[in-house]
Design goal:
It is built from 15 helices and 20 strands.
């Protein structure tokens, strides 16, 4: 259909053939095929591969409603972004910021794209991660630049391409490998100051003036009032349902978006303990908490699989903790990340994709022990496999008889996917954000609030009560 063609400016996500085959066997499993038929299952799988390489059609902003009302933040944001856009032509300034109909601290901004942008003869090649950021409204920061024309000078107009398979050598003057066009920009640095310096270059290397997908750049805009976050990640905080005065554990917390959301939902009253095993990421959590004026966050560098203490007489306040120390636990688990959008390419082997399940189970064991009776455990991932989502739920219900699935509020995504042997009632309690289910209907014409719940990253949430 013409809409499919208009929407699909990029090829489907590039995966290793073994990974494509594996994912296909997941999405065309016996239970799914029996329920929807071979053709529909096949079509969903193809749509998944297509939508993963494209950005969602809106930007989601979590508003710090613990500091100001949603309306105030919305007006401030409109002012800020109008100032930012005064350099653009009038037709591009039609900026609508819409509150989400079901989530009280979310603002949505439409993304304009794909737009008709002409490719130029001068080309810069950027890394895949940088390319994805550009598709979501960012400028090109110097460390992301891999190749540039030999004589690139400040002020040059250039086309920006994203390197799909990580094959472009840093410092090259051209690149013929597989890559994709993301828009045009103006060089803010000479080639020599990007590549020929002792210190790694910092700051904006290319300012995007004609991005293929246009959305406001949030760099430094209202840092304490507006936080860029994917919609399902905001939903997780609400599903956890933290209350003032509780003690809450975020097990894999960096960079701290969900940690800070939990603290804000508690009105900064109580304690949110954030753990992450990577030292420099702990600083990010502290910075984010400080920026958002949240004092109840305590972050520690610690491996959560070892967070349960066997010493009942332990007096130190940090990890490990005695069993049953927390009212609620968020296990936003490390995962294969196959739900992230836009993602043009994933060069991982099948072994790497499948390596997360055992780690997730170790973390689950610790989570259940650390949770008080009557407490809530939320498990979430940003991936689309059964092994890391519904199959983990089936395993957990079996391994921990004390756990019971709970309804989720808000429930905006689809239900759980068939294939893990869960009952229809159990699947209804799960929340799986499945952008492939509405990739056709996510018409740019359908109103933003309606499409916001469907045109998301791929994501999974399960909520348990410990009896």
């Amino acid at each position: 259909s013409s809409r499919e063609e208009k929407m699909s400016v990029f090829p489907q996500i590039y995966l290793k053939p073994e990974v494509t085959e594996y994912l296909k066997s997941v999405f065309l499993n016996k239970e799914v095929v029996a329920a929807v038929g071979q053709q529909e299952a096949e079509s969903r799988f193809q749509k998944l591969l297509t939508c993963l390489s494209h950005p969602p059609s809106y930007t989601c902003v979590r508003a710090s409603t613990h500091l100001a009302s949603l309306d105030e933040i919305r007006h401030k944001l409109e002012e800020e972004l109008k100032n930012q856009m005064c350099s653009l032509s009038a037709e591009e300034v039609s900026l609508q910021i819409v509150p989400h109909p079901q989530i009280p601290d979310v603002l949505l901004l439409p993304v304009n794209g794909p737009r008709p942008v002409k490719q130029l003869s001068s080309e810069v090649v950027v890394g895949a991660q940088c390319g994805s950021a550009v598709l979501r409204g960012a400028h090109v920061f110097a460390p992301g630049i891999l190749a540039s024309p030999k004589h690139m000078k400040v002020g040059d107009l250039i086309s920006v391409f994203s390197d799909l398979e990580g094959k472009c050598t840093r410092g090259a003057t051209s690149f013929q490998g597989s890559r994709v066009f993301v828009g045009n920009g103006v060089a803010e640095m000479d080639r020599s100051s990007i590549f020929c310096t002792d210190e790694p270059a910092k700051g904006i290397g290319v300012r995007m003036v004609e991005p293929l997908y246009q959305s406001p750049s949030f760099d430094g805009v209202l840092p304490h009032l507006a936080f860029l976050q994917n919609l399902p990640s905001v939903v997780v905080g609400h599903v956890l349902g933290p209350r003032p005065g509780e003690r809450i554990l975020d097990m894999c917390a960096a960079p701290g978006g969900k940690t800070c959301h939990i603290a804000a939902l508690m009105g900064d009253q109580g304690e949110v303990v954030a753990l992450d095993r990577i030292r420099n990421k702990i600083d990010r959590i502290h910075q984010n908490a400080q920026k958002l004026h949240l004092r109840c966050v305590k972050a520690y560098c610690f491996n959560s699989t070892q967070a349960v203490s066997s010493d009942p007489a332990q007096t130190i306040e940090g990890p490990p903790f005695p069993p049953e120390s927390f009212d609620r636990v968020l296990l936003d688990a490390p995962c294969s990340g196959l739900g992230k959008r836009p993602n043009m390419a994933n060069t991982w082997s099948l072994k790497e994709i499948c390596s997360y399940s055992p780690l997730q189970r170790k973390l689950f064991h610790a989570a259940v022990q650390l949770l008080k009776r009557g407490g809530v455990l939320v498990y979430s991932t940003c991936t689309v496999t059964l092994a890391e989502n519904e199959e983990q739920v089936a395993w957990a219900l079996n391994a921990f008889p004390c756990l019971m699935l709970q309804p989720q509020e808000p429930h905006i995504g689809a239900e759980g996917m068939l294939g893990a042997g869960l009952t229809p009632e159990q699947l209804r309690l799960l929340q799986r954000f499945s952008p492939e289910l509405s990739w056709d209907q996510t018409e740019m014409t359908s109103p933003l609030p309606c499409r916001a719940g469907r045109d998301t990253i791929g994501f999974f949430i399960a909520k348990f009560l410990k009896n």
